[in-house]
Amino acid sequence: MRRAVVEHDGRATSYGELEERVALLAGGLAAVGVRPLDRVAVFVRPGAELVAAMFALLRLGAPPVLIDPGMGTGRAMRALAQARPRFLLGVPEAVLASHLWRGALDSIERRFVAGRLPLHASLGALRALGEHMAPGDGHDPEAEAAVLYTSGSTGPAKGVVYTHGNFAAQLAALRDLYGFQPGEVDRACFPLFALFDAALGTTSVFPPVDPSRPGRCDPALVVAAARAHGATYAFGSPAVWARVAPWLAARGEQLEGLRRILVAGAPIEPALVESLARVAPQATTTTPYGATESLPVATIDGAEILATRAQAEGGAGTCVGRAAPGIEIAIVEPRAGTLARFDAARVLSRGELGEILVRGRQATRGYSAAPEADLRSKVHDEGGTWHRIGDLGWIDEQDRLWFCGRVAHALSTRSGLVPCLPHQLRARRHPAVRRAALVGVGPSGAEEPVLVLQPRDQRVRRAEAGREVLAACASSGGHAVAPWPAPVRVLWKDEFPLDARHEAKIRNEDLQAWARKELGA
């Protein structure tokens, strides 16, 4: 039996069984009135039921709407109201929440439950109708295939409209970049990526990881799932690997079977690359760079991350590698507001820091019911639409892209625009620092750089460590694209606000508000 999905309780679903589920669910949904291009909200837990639901909707041509559960019930329901789905498939908690928000969710005509709930038809009942929908000839590549919501880590969550052509391009790029082969096994710690597994012909093994709290996973259970089912690759956020690698190292154990480790969601630390190399010596660590609107944009392996470590810690930012197949990257002069046409932008040369724009087959062209977001993020050109990814970066002489932080997190100083990441990387080298954020305090155009530091533990001598960090930042810059002004002071904060999806991205804007309040600015 070639397995398609293995769930955390050990239940396995073969590809034959998955195909039967997909065919019956797609047929059942069609029988109760779900039509092509009807949006369907999906709130189903990771596992065979989620995979079957997604592929049934794709087969039917009814776009699934996926919203990050980590954003909280209120924000999730408001995002759902914006998407205006006609149907909802969800666990009982999601179905009940949608009833409580019925006034805002007036577009939903019927709800189906993954499980049991009185007065609601279950997904099992839909399959029991006996209608069978075989695979068709495919859909128009330009037709809407899904609406995937951003995590809202740097602003309001937005519904990214994917076409069938976008998904096909993503699948092709993943095969080309990482060489996935049918029969491989994925230890799936990020459910959305695991949905590619069935299309790749590989097996998804879902360990017991709360997708809304990956940084709180039990490393023993994650390792046990990988070993029990012979995982050959694994995808997870840095927050997952930062728990798994030390757990293995403390026991002198290794994951011998892994051949690829994919880390995404935030820049990967060189120290984590080194840790993974010790506990999974046969695996190549890689990290794809991109966003919900366009993924993958670029990729880099662990060896190159380590080779560029001195540059990264010397002020260059983080190297995220070369462009993925089918992707073009442009660096343009940063500008506030909209950029209607690409020919209105000033394209920068190699080595110059600017705003990153991308276009290509896997780059999406718009958002759901968010014309203002389209105006802010999409740039028209004769050769196709560019996406403003929202990051600052530069391209080196080897055609590698360097990431220097979010545009929204950059400081507006008397010396000009200052990216947050270079000084953050330098500060994190100090053994007393767990996380660091560079924020601006003061009026726009005259912001002063302030470092907010999270201590590794309560034994840290904060005053002494702070002075050492400031001295290190003042002496850095040998590899910087520009001579960034050094931070003027340090604040310590025991807990940092992180994004909900990966628990790895620091919410600099929240820390900036906190720092301004602390300093009375």
Concise description?
This protein is an alpha/beta fold and 521 residues long.
Describe this entry's structure for a reader.
This protein is α/β, with parallel strands linked by helices. Among the domains are: 3-138, Rossmann fold; 410-518, GMP Synthetase, Chain A, domain 3 (2-Layer Sandwich), CATH 3.30.300.30. 32% of the residues lie in helices and 25% in strands. It has 16 helices and 26 strands. The strands form 4 sheets. Strands 1, 2, 10, 11, 12, 13, 14, 15, 16, 17, 18, 19, 20 and 21 form a 14-stranded mixed beta sheet that branches. A 7-stranded mixed beta sheet has the order 7-6-5-3-4-8-9. The protein has a 3-stranded mixed beta sheet with strand order 24-25-26, sandwiched between helices. The radius of gyration is 23 Å and the shape is globular. The relative contact order is 0.09.
